[in-house]
Amino acid sequence: MGLALLVTGGTGQVGRELVARAPEDAVVRAPGSAELDLTHAGTVIEAVTALAESAAADGLDPVVINAAAYTAVDEAESNRARAFAVNADGPRVLAAACSSRRVPLLHISTDYVFPGDGDRPYATDDPVGPRSVYGLTKLAGEDAVLGSGARAWVVRTAWVYGAHGVNFVRTMIRLAGERDTVSVVDDQRGSPTWTGDLAAGLLELAARAAGDAPPAARVLHCTGAGETTWCGLARAVFEELGADPDRIRPCTTEEFPRPAPRPAYSVLSNDSWTAAGLTPLRDWRSALSAAFPELVEHK
Questions:
Q1: CA 69, 72, 75, 76 torsion-angle sign
Q2: CATH number of the domain residue 99 falls in
Q3: Can you say whether residue 119 is alpha, beta or left, with left for phi > 0 and alpha for psi between -120 and 50 degrees?
Q4: What is the pLDDT of residue 1?
Q5: Neighbour tally for 281: CB within 10 Å
Q6: Considering the entire predicted model, what is its pTM?
Q7: What span, in angstroms and rounded, lies between the C-alpha atoms of 145 and 99?
C-alpha cells in the first residue's frame, strides 16, 4: 500500500528533500509555516483529519512527518515564548491529532537536547540536559509527542545541511568567494548530516511506521556516519570547491561568543537506527561529495 504523507515545515530544507525523494506512488502534502502554522491548533487538527480521510478514501497509509521547528538557536534565547510555541506546544497538538485519528507521526529533534559535554557518541537513553532555550523547547516537544498516546517516533539528528535554506555548508560556499580567510571553531565536534540522506532515512522509517513491523524503539538517532569539527567540515567544503583548505583558520568557541551556548560534543550514536533494521546513513565526507553538485547549483 502506498503512503499519504503530510510534511509539516514542507518549505524548509528537510521538508523540501522529503518532497523530492518521496516514492512516486506517494501522495504528499507539504505546507510551509505560512499555510500550516503549528501554533494554530484548529488548522493543525484540520490538516491531520483531512490526511486521514483522504488516505482512507484512496486506500493509502497516512503518515505525518514533523519537519517544522523554530531553529533560530540564538534568537530563541530572547524569544522564548515563540520557541516554546513552535517546538513544544505545536508538536503537542499535532501528536494529539495524530493519536485521535490513529495516524503515525515522525517527529524530528536535535542533538541540543544533550548537555554536549560527553566524550563518546550519545545513545538514545543517555541522560538529557539541554543548555539552551532551543534545546529546552525541543526536549519539551519530544516529551509531548512521546506522552501523547500517538504511534510516534522521535528522530534526533544533527548538523543538518542541504541545498536550500540557511545552513553552515552553504555559508562556507558563499564565504569562499568573499573572503581570503575564514575563522571557524575547531573545538566543537559533531556529525554532518546531508538532507538528502536524512530524507531517505525518514521515508524508510515512514514506510515501516505505516506497516506491520514498525520499530519498537520510540527514539532513534539518525546522522551522517563519522565525526568532525566545524573547522574540519569547512575545510572539506573548500576541498570540494577546489579551494585551499588552509584558508580556513581554526579558532576556539571562546573567540566567537554567541547568545546561546553550543554543545562541545554533539556526536549521536546511530546504533538505535541500525538496531531497528533501518539503512545507516553513509559517512559524512562521502555524503558531502555526493551533495556538492546540488549545493553549488543552488548557492
A1: positive
A2: 3.40.50.720
A3: alpha
A4: 78
A5: 25
A6: 0.97
A7: 10
Spatial separation of the C-alpha atoms in residues 17 and 41, rounded to whole Å:
26
List the chain residues with pLDDT less than 50. Answer: none
| The one catalytic residue among 70, 112, 134, 161 | 134
134 is a catalytic site residue: yes
3-state secondary structure 187-201: CCEECCEEHHHHHHH
36 part of a folded domain = yes
What is the C-alpha to C-alpha distance for residues 188 and 229, in angstroms, rounded to an integer? 5
Count how many domains the chain has: 1
**Which position has the grid cell 483529519?**
49
Q: Return the C-alpha cell found at 241.
A: 570547491
Please check whether residue 4 is in contact with residue 51, taking contact to mean a CB–CB distance below 8 angstroms.
Answer: yes
Domain of residue 202 covers 3-167+192-226+267-283
pLDDT of residue 298: 82
Helix (H) or strand (E) holding 249: strand 248-251
Which DSSP letter does residue 269 get? -
Q: How far apart are CA 257 and CA 7, in angstroms?
A: 35
- In DSSP notation, 145-186 reads HHTS-SSEEEEEE-SEE-SSSS-HHHHHHHHHTT-S-EEEE-
- Paired residues of 219 in beta bridges: 154
What would the grid cell of residue 142 be?
519530544
